[in-house]
Amino acid sequence: MQTTVPVLAPGTAEAALTEGLDAWRELPAAQQPGWPDPQVLSDVNAELASYPPLVFAGECDDLKAKVAAAARGEAFLLQGGDCAETFADVTADRIRNKIKTMLQMAVVLTYGASMPVVKVGRMAGQYAKPRSSALEVRGGVELPAYRGDAVNDYEWDPQARIPDPRRLLRAYHASSATLNLVRAFTKGGFADLRHVHEWNRGFVATAANARYEAMARDIDRAMRFMAACGGDFEGLRTVDFYSSHEALLLDYERPLTRIDSRTGLPYNVSAHFVWVGERTRQLDGAHVDLMSRVRNPIGVKLGPNTSPEDAIALVDKLDPEREPGRLTFVSRMGAGKVREALPALVKAVSAVAPDVLWICDPMHGNTFEAASGYKTRRFEDVIDEVRGFFEVHAQLGTVPGGLHVELTGDDVTECIGGSEHIDEADLASHYETLCDPRLNHQQSLEMAFLVAEMLAER
Ligand code: PEP
Ligand code: MN
User: Fold this and answer.
1) What is the DSSP letter of 137?
2) What is the DSSP-derived secondary structure letter of residue 52?
3) Which of 9, 261, 297, 426 has its CA 20 to 30 A from that of 269?
4) Counting Cβ atoms within 10 Å, is residue 185 exposed (0-12), middle (13-18) or buried (19+)?
5) How many beta carbons lie within 10 A of that of residue 406, not counting itself?
6) Burial of 371 (0-12, 13-18, 19+ CB in 10 A)
7) How far is residue 248's CA from residue 280's CA, in Å, rounded to a whole number?
8) Cα of 278 from ligand 1 centre, angstroms
């Protein structure tokens, strides 16, 4: 195995770009694991640098154009998937259920918005987590916190919790296998609009979801109308589905940053879209520096303590050219704060950068611990934050361009509420997440119908 990343001829333009890609190494990098063995880390870095890209830079550009359309109010972006993917869940069933859920949501949202929905999975790379505490304590015993399958193992065992850089290689292969199946599903006929609509009919057929039946019937009529007009549905047999994750582990993101042969510019080829989290978005930090140098469409999470000055400084650093589709702000304020905290940010940013896309993460500001100790979220709070997000944009005349959701296609019990009335006592029955609580399949579809109503009212 090689131990160094190949160096380009000094003095060339390409070498200068490549050197800039390592500027982050001199900057403070929050939330990085304490890898125990520098030699193993360096070997892993070299090996990752030799692997083929997971995505093509041209696809990132296509997504950038779609993000730009969403920012203009001509499309709606749906980003969703697990809080933390796990290696154990890289199975056909789990991946299919997630894709199915996203596609079902997208059909409903497309109808509500009368606009294309840009589909982006929090998938095929979401294997690392920032943690609020470096240690986890159970019964008086302290171990390093679980930081995602790309770093250490969830098992409550001192050995398992030691960060192991070889897991970065597994994260790459797990992402590769996931993306391969996602591409097969979305291009091979599984995503056919007629199937997806059939699945939605199953959802509204239950008594709890009867209030959504009217919209499902309208969609049905619209599809029969298209068929009667001679639409052959060929264009509706496949969909474009993009991958995304938080660009957290710089020892993964850097070796998967490459110079695009078409343009000579750097792209992060581990995913189409990458974002910087609330805990790593320091203006002079390593994450923002590396993201400022890649040409992908990128996102930044903004919590309720963000000042308008911070937001504008991030725009200036990450999108100095004000390139349409380049930058997405993902607001995650909490249902109780969105109406107060968001307007000043949107107002300030839209004055200097009207092309920035705003999407709503109604999950991360609404987490609390149930009396039983489970981390959970209330479905009603999640919906209320989305409603607040739409209200703020309606008042300002700006565009509420999308949603960022933690969801799964399975019947878990992690968030309370929704038409199935999951309550605190139900949490224990199917609580599977290793990190944050996700909307289950039904709750995700219910959210899509509710947001479709909000979109239709705009
Ligand atoms: C996340 O998206 O899982 C996350 C940690 O979010 P945030 O950075 O907004 O806290
Ligand atoms: Mn999360």
Assistant:
1) E
2) P
3) 9
4) buried
5) 27
6) exposed
7) 8
8) 6
Tell me the pLDDT tens digit for each residue of 59-92: 999 999 999 999 999 999 999 999 999 999 999 9
Six token digits for residue 183: 């591409």
Asked whether the beta carbons of 364 and 333 are under 8 A apart, the reply is no
Reported as a single tens digit per residue, the pLDDT across 180-229 is 999 999 999 899 998 899 999 999 999 889 989 999 999 989 989 988 99
Amino acid in the structure at residue 442: Q
Q: Work out which ligand 1 atom sits closest to the CA atom of 246.
A: 2
With beta carbons less than 8 A apart as the criterion, state whether 75 and 115 touch: yes
Two structure tokens written together for 42: 């360096």
The pocket around ligand 1, CB under 6 angstroms, is made up of 83, 130, 246, 277-279, 301, 332, 364, 436
Q: Which residue has the tokens 């009212």?
A: 457
Contacts of 381 by beta carbon, 8 Å cutoff, 6+ apart = 334, 335, 362, 366
Which ligand has the shortest distance to the CA of 329?
A: 1
Sequence-ordered list of residues with C-beta below 8 angstroms from that of 394, at least 6 positions apart, any chain: 400, 458
What is the spatial distance between Cα 103 and Cα 296, in angstroms, rounded to a whole number? 24
Structure tokens at 207: 């008594």
**Quick check: pTM over 0.70?**
yes
Name the phi and psi angles at 77, rounded to 5.
-100, 130
Is 236's pLDDT higher than 90?
A: no
Mutation probe of ligand 1 site: the residue of 131, 291, 382, 436 with most atoms within 8 A of C-beta? 436
90: CB partners within 8 A, 6+ apart: 174, 177, 178
The amino acid present at 104, given as its one-letter code, is Q
Alpha helices in 51-165 (DSSP H): 57-71, 92-113
Residue 417 gets which letter from DSSP? Answer: B
CA of 412 to the centre of ligand 1 (A): 20
